Write the structure tokens for this entry.
Amino acid sequence: MPGSEWIDAPWWPFAFMVLAGALPTHIWRWMGVAFGTRLDEDSEALRWVRAVATALVAAVVARLVLFPQGHLAELPTWMRLFAFLAGFAAYFAGGRRPIVGILFGQFVLAIELWWTFG
């Protein structure tokens, strides 16, 4: 079959990863750089994009808290919720800085894991 020597080449999987994986991602990044300066941050479209991104992050956090996997699943739900709420409170107490809430929530979760599993 013509062209099969490319597919059988040892470098082909790496080339395929670049073509099928990285290139489509980079096209959107390049477009963002090219058109990003022309966008109005208060436009309806960007507010919608921001809302969708926030909803996706909230869904991932809810899944981690309510339906975890691995060692986290062995903790009772109330412990996971407590760590989440402690991190949320630290976020507000720390001047609405995400890093404060994330680190404090992880600290509380680590203490709970250590307390439960020794």
